[in-house]
Design brief:
Blueprint (H helix, E strand, L loop, with lengths): L2 H10 L11 H4 L2 H6 L14 H12 L1 H8 L6 E5 L11 H19 L3 E3 L3 E2 L4 H11 L8 H24 L13 E2 L3 H16 L3 E11 L4 E3 L4 E19 L4 H4 L6 E7 L10 E4 L4 E7 L5 E5 L7 H4 L2 E8 H4 L3 E3 L12 E5 L12 E3 L5 H9 L24 H4 L14 H12 L3 E14 L7 E11 L4 H8 L3 E3 L3 H11 L2 E3 L1 E2 L10 E3 L4 E3 L2 H14 L3 H4 L17 H4 E3 L3 E2 L1 H6 L15 E7 L6 H11 L11 E7 L2 E3 L15 H6 L12 H10 L6 E3 L1 H25 L2 H6 L10 H22 L3 H30 L5 H21 L4 H12 L20 H26 L9 E7 L7 H18 L3 E6 L12 E6 L6 E8 L21 H7 L4
Parallel strand pairs: 1-2, 1-25, 3-4, 8-11, 9-14, 18-26, 25-26, 27-28, 29-30
Antiparallel strand pairs: 5-6, 5-17, 7-8, 7-13, 7-16, 9-15, 10-11, 10-12, 13-14, 17-19, 20-24, 21-22, 21-23, 29-32, 31-32
Keywords: Aminoacyl-tRNA synthetase, ATP-binding, Cytoplasm, Ligase, Nucleotide-binding, Protein biosynthesis
Protein name: isoleucine--tRNA ligase
EC number: 6.1.1.5
Length: about 1000
């Protein structure tokens, strides 16, 4: 039954005469009075079942909504480009934070009239999926050919995608989740676009192959990029101090010293690299000292600045000479294993800028096959005529090969097959002892790189890999970043620094589950061919027969006619390469799916990912986009704004870990756990609300107490909406009810509308700045303070007891309607299911709330005067409520309605805006404002002589005056009205005047 009909029925039930007289007591049913009140009525539940609600509304506010808005071509387009999560395992809280943040942005733009393009994707290649597939097959990569591994990995990836897709949808994400509307890096069309981008980079001269040191993972048996490393601060190494015998040569200072052996003291944390030593590096600007030790021990050379730090290593020693580093350059020394491999030629001391006196001895052992700085130093000095001149004894599994005997002699046989990180390193130390080169072993804990996939240490070792040269495109990349917006702004410097520090990108991997680098190798010369004509031919074959055909098809089909020789079998001249592309290259080419903008370049409005993507996807997108563009059109980025979020920690600030038992799963939050008391069913909106409350650009905390707080906040907002829905009536009632214009509204209504206008402006600004915590804070404050603690409190009496069509009640309802629709627009991007519920209940429709464009309030509702006046009255209200509370504490009253308020004005010499305000608003408003039965404003001199049975006195300063306003709280003088419960009834009447007029309106 609607409010209108309910009100009429209540009036008809009053069958007594309008002349009360003595007939009142015998003919009137007091329940009729309560039945005539317009108490809140709504079917909107306070505590619904989240699972049932979200299941009912899921399609409406997710898939169907996305499809509806995507077809509205008249809307301007907004593109949020989805960085593909890795298709492996259940979702963790980082996934939830990432996807919900994206969804908030998307939903806000839909509500503001944009057509959103959001295509969810998955990164499907790489080692973890390959390893999972091999584990399920019960095999390892060395025992199977590529095709069975690829088929198994493909099936594993698709299975994981379906699992993650189902979980993503439980988060209430607006998207089309069909296979046709999503992307996978295994899709044929995706891989072909990737290969064409690679071809363009080849055409631009960016791609090359080189034998040089790279990050190599023995556990993965593959090269790694910097972005695939994690650094651990607690790695333990057994470092060694070793000595090399210097050959005095023509160095005058050394030649004139006493005729003892001179040793160069070197320190290294990787003793296994000593078998590949090719030089000792010094810094020309450092000063070195020659130390004499007791007895006939050899002289030793170290950096002068390291003497104090090395006191325990050097022992008692005297400085017999100082040598400028530049004087040592060119001197030679005997290889460390020369005593067991006599044919080794002497090696040289070289200058290198990376040598410092901050650690070690000031002399650095150089193995250019195992260190980027060593390698660069050699190339810079022109010491590597050919890459093959590098000395490297490490194989594909991180083990010593039999080539190690070339520098260690027959003794090196004990090293062959040993892991350089384990047994091999220990055995090298034993050999150092045998040759008398070991000075000391030290166990140190230090920062060391690990394979982020296998969580095992990596090594630097020389292998033949494909690289992208970044030096030629770096300036364009940095210029492009200068035109990108960053949230938070500080993340600009982080990404810029990463790009500045990179000179090349190792893009090849030694795995089979990936996109191939389609290079041909000439068998007689073992040289690679990778050029535009060859690639064009290969890509035509792969486009027709599928990417997997690279492993399955014969080499004859991939060799273009120009590379064939008459009468010679193709497979005796050529072989296909076995390397695959770095997975960051895979996902980094996802920008090729983006629509072209006004400048005819593909660009997303927003990309949003975790801070680790400064080293990963943010970079790989930028670099592939620029490197594949013609030189004249470089300098653009595939994104306009980059947003970065941090990690999710537990509520104590610790990293979530299964071993610590502090992991909070997003699906447990949404669906609940086995123990519902411990893990209740919160539903997606509570999780989303938590996301909206955090400063996501920092690491965020989450745990049981935080979730409980988020759930309580959502409940309060829900209860606010429920109060409004219960009081504004249904669509029919609201349609028949005449709205009240702003000019006819009272101060409280104008103040609430002013605060609502400010709330909306803050929310719009917060959404525009991607600061959702700002939105949630303002929304919660408005709901809990402005509404629940004030406006609802002071308007209940009028809503319940006034006539349905009274101007006072209509004014409140007019405000409540605007409050509800505006608040719902504000909260909808963050808690869409709650917003859909409210929209459905208010409008009695099954259309999505997002189908109605967010229409902002007119600026006329901005009312600074109402705000200033209300602030003055709120200070007065605080003082009055304190007096009422004192009376309640003393048990003088149970309800504030049992009291009256007297405001005693002093004689003022100057006009007072505050007093004018009290007089203008009148006592009818003030008694409602105080929730008392009456309020009077009197001069101190006209105070009556009646002495109440109790009174509470207080004062407050009158704003702008030196005088105080006196406040008296005393018992109500009239009787309690049986209908509205205010103490405003004259003893001889059954009801108060207001209720009498409602029950028996004048005819």
């Amino acid at each position: 039954m609607n409010f209108w009909a309910s009100s009429q029925k209540c009036r008809s039930r009053i069958s007594y005469t309008r002349l009360w007289g003595t007939r009142y007591a015998s003919t009137v049913d007091n329940h009729a009075f309560s039945n005539s009140l317009l108490l809140p009525k709504t079917s909107f539940p306070l505590r619904p079942n989240p699972t049932e609600v979200e299941a009912r509304l899921g399609a409406r506010t997710c898939t169907q909504l996305y499809q509806w808005q995507s077809k509205n071509v008249e809307r301007p387009k907004f593109v949020l480009h989805d960085g593909p999560p890795y298709a492996n395992g259940d979702l963790h809280m980082g996934h939830a934070l990432n996807k919900v943040l994206k969804d908030i942005i998307n939903r806000f733009n839909v509500s503001r009239g944009y057509r959103v393009q959001y295509i969810p994707g998955w990164d499907c290649h790489g080692l973890p999926i390959e390893n999972k597939a091999l584990h399920e097959l019960g095999e390892d990569s060395t025992s199977l050919p590529p095709l069975p591994i690829r088929r198994a990995a493909h099936d594993t990836a698709l299975r994981e995608i379906e699992n993650q897709k189902e979980q993503f949808q439980r988060l209430g994400l607006m998207a089309d989740w069909s296979d046709e509307a999503t992307y996978r890096t295994t899709d044929h069309s995706y891989q072909m676009r990737q290969l064409r981008i690679f071809r363009d980079m080849v055409d631009n001269g960016v791609i090359y192959r080189r034998y040089r040191p790279v990050h190599f993972s023995p556990s993965s048996r593959s090269a790694l990029a910097e972005a695939e490393l994690v650094y651990k601060d607690d790695h333990v190494s057994h470092s060694v101090f070793v000595s090399f015998e210097l050959q005095r040569g023509d160095t005058p200072v050394l030649r004139d010293l006493e005729p003892r052996t001179i040793q160069l003291l070197v320190w290294t944390t990787t003793p296994w690299t000593l078998t590949a030593n090719m030089a000792i590096a010094i810094h020309p600007d450092l000063v070195y000292v020659v130390l004499r030790r007791a007895g006939d021990l050899p002289l030793r050379i170290v950096a002068k600045d390291r003497l104090n730090a090395l006191a325990d290593i050097l022992g008692a020693a005297d400085v017999v000479a100082e040598i400028q580093g530049s004087e040592l350059i060119g001197a030679t020394y005997t290889p460390i294993f020369a005593s067991i491999c006599p044919d080794l030629p002497p090696l040289r001391i070289i200058p290198a800028p990376h040598v410092t006196a901050a650690s070690g001895t000031g002399l650095v052992h150089c193995a250019p096959a195992h260190g980027a700085e060593d390698y660069n130093a050699f190339r810079g000095l022109g010491l590597l005529g050919k890459d093959e001149e590098l000395i490297c004894h490490v194989g594909a599994a991180g083990e010593f090969t039999d080539a190690v005997t070339e520098t260690v002699g027959s003794t090196g046989a004990v090293l062959v097959g040993e892991s350089v990180l384990d047994g091999g390193s220990r055995k090298v130390v034993e050999i150092l002892k045998e040759v008398g080169a070991l000075v000391k072993i030290q166990r140190i804990k230090h920062r060391y790189p690990y394979d982020w996939r296998t969580n095992k240490p990596i090594i630097m070792t020389a292998t033949s890999q494909w690289f992208a040269n970044l030096d030629d495109i770096k300036a364009d990349a940095l210029a492009a970043l200068g035109r990108v917006g960053f949230v938070p702004p500080i993340s600009r410097s982080r990404l810029t620094a990463f790009v500045q520090l990179r000179s090349e990108w190792c893009i090849s991997r030694q795995r089979v589950w990936g996109v191939p680098i389609p290079a041909l190798y000439h068998l007689p010369t073992d040289t690679a061919v990778l050029d535009s004509p060859t690639l064009e031919h290969i890509l035509r074959v792969l486009d027709k027969k599928g990417i997997g055909y690279w492993w399955e098809g014969p080499v004859e089909e991939f060799v273009p006619p120009a590379l064939r020789e008459a009468g010679v079998a193709v497979d005796t001249l050529w072989r296909k390469g076995t390397d695959t592309m770095d997975v960051w290259f895979d996902s980094g080419t996802a920008w090729s799916m983006l629509p072209e903008r006004e400048d005819c370049l593909p660009r997303a409005d927003v990309c949003l990912e975790g801070s680790d993507q400064h080293r990963g996807w943010f970079q790989s997108q930028l670099l592939t986009a620029i490197a594949s563009s013609p030189p004249r059109s470089r300098g653009w980025s595939p994104y306009a704004t980059l947003i970065t979020h941090g990690m999710v920690l537990d509520q104590t600030g610790k990293k979530m870990s299964k071993s610590l038992g502090n992991v909070t799963s997003p699906m447990t939050v949404v669906n609940g756990g086995p123990d519902r008391k411990k893990d209740p069913v919160y539903g997606a909106d509570v999780l989303r609300f938590w996301v909206g409350t955090v400063d996501y650009w920092n690491d965020t905390h989450l745990g049981p107490a935080i979730l409980t707080q988020a759930a309580e906040s959502v409940r309060k907002i829900r209860n606010t909406a429920r109060f409004i829905l219960g009081n504004v009536g249904n669509v029919e009632t609201r349609t028949r009810m005449k709205k009240v214009e702003r000019s006819e509204m009272g101060l409280a209504e104008r103040y609430v509308m002013h605060e609502l206008y400010n709330l909306e402006q803050v929310a719009l600004e917060g959404y525009a700045q991607f600061n959702f915590a700002k939105v949630v804070a303002a929304l919660s404050n408005f709901a809990n303070i402005t509404l629940s603690s004030l406006y609802f409190d002071i308007s209940k009496d009028g809503l319940y007891a006034n006539a349905l069509d009274s101007s006072e009640r209509r004014a409140v309802v007019t405000v409540l309607e605007k409050v509800l629709t505006t608040m719902n627009s504000i909260m909808a991007p963050i808690v869409p299911h709650l917003a859909e519920e409210i929209h459905e209940a208010f409008n009695e429709t099954e259309a999505s709330v997002f189908m109605e464009e967010w229409k902002t309030l007119e600026s006329e509702w901005q009312d600074p005067q109402a705000s200033d006046e209300m602030k003055m009255l709120l200070r007065l209200r605080t003082a009055v409520l304190a007096g009422l509370e004192e009376a309640r504490a003393d048990k003088k009253i149970k309800s504030s309605l049992e009291a009256e308020v007297e405001l005693l004005l002093p004689e003022l010499e100057e006009p007072s805006a505050f007093v004018d305000l009290l007089q203008r608003e009148g006592m009818s408003f003030l008694k409602t404002f105080f929730i008392a039965s009456d309020a009077t404003l009197v001069d101190e001199g006209s105070l009556g002589t009646t002495s109440p049975e109790w009174v509470y006195l207080s004062t407050m300063p009158i704003p702008g005056c030196d005088d105080d306003l006196s406040i008296r709280i005393r018992p109500a003088q009239l009787e309690k009205c049986s209908r509205c419960w205010t103490f405003t009834r004259v003893p001889s009447e059954p009801l108060c005047p207001r209720c009498t007029s409602v029950i028996l309106p004048a005819t």
